[in-house]
Write a structure and sequence with these properties.
Helix content is about 30%, strand content about 20%. It is built from 5 helices and 11 strands; from the N terminus they run E-E-H-E-E-E-H-E-E-E-E-H-E-H-E-H. The chain is globular, with a radius of gyration of 17 Å. The protein starts with 7 loop residues before the first strand and ends in a 5-residue tail after the last helix.
């Protein structure tokens, strides 16, 4: 395994007290020395990458001054949006597809090479910037391949215990005319690892934003959604600043 490959990319300069973004599934890169044993076309699908999230996060950084921390390794190598010890950290199957190269994988080596450096670097970004809001950018499929489940939402807001920012953002996105999932298509009460660790544990409000992949598959659409997200994030930030702490 090549351990020289950085598991993350950071774009932009965080502004102290500002907004930062993180995209745990932004890449489908597989480092040298790892053979997942699956067809190449599967690496372009949602099981390997959150389609559109890299483009959105990069535009947030370059066009809106929201510094971004992006995954630089595929979720099939290691899922950076899981805690160490979670059984889904390195999957042997995903949405009906077997991942033979992960059967018997050296989990500790992958954690040491990718998971820990990724989260240590983001923790450092958060500690130095002391952001007033963190954005977690994800995307989801319109239809879940293994079950045929249809997802009607345009965008979803996920949260665990701290829903301060999500409650505001849900109303704002609905005001734009979108169908918004409230802790859909997944519940942040079951899967919120990165925000549990870097936001909730530090008392920092956050927005975990799930975008439907067919709405962000094109670069032009990614730019539009980056504009929308930046607008909503800035409004959420202002609303939270105007709300007295209890």
């Amino acid at each position: 395994m090549s351990e020289r490959h950085s598991p993350f990319i950071q774009i932009g300069t965080p502004q102290r007290g500002g907004i930062v973004a993180v995209a745990d599934h932004a890449s489908n890169f597989v480092p040298d020395g790892i053979d997942l044993g699956i067809a190449p076309d599967l690496m372009e699908q949602h099981i390997a990458i959150d389609i559109g999230t890299a483009g959105v996060a990069v535009r947030l950084a370059r066009q809106h001054g929201i510094a971004a921390h992006l995954a630089n390794v595929s979720r099939l190598v290691i899922d950076l949006h899981r805690n160490e010890g979670d059984k889904g950290l390195v999957v042997t199957s995903s949405d009906g597809h077997t991942i033979p190269g992960n059967i018997g994988a050296d989990l500790e080596r992958r954690i040491a090479a990718y998971h820990r450096p990724y989260h240590d670097a983001f923790a450092q970004m958060v500690a130095e910037a002391q952001p007033s809001l963190i954005l977690a950018i994800h995307s989801f499929t319109p239809v879940m391949g293994s079950t045929g489940e249809r997802r009607p939402w345009d965008v979803g807001l996920l949260y665990n215990q701290d829903d301060r920012a999500a409650r505001i953002a849900i109303e704002l996105f609905e005001g734009m005319g979108f169908t918004v999932g409230d802790n859909e298509p997944y519940s942040g009460k079951q899967l919120n690892a990165t925000m549990d660790r870097h936001a909730e544990a530090n008392g920092i409000p956050y927005l975990t934003i799930e975008l439907r992949q067919d709405l962000v598959s094109r670069k032009s659409h990614q730019a539009v959604w980056a504009d929308r997200i930046a607008q909503v994030a800035q409004q959420v930030q202002a609303a939270l600043a105007a709300t007295p702490e209890t």
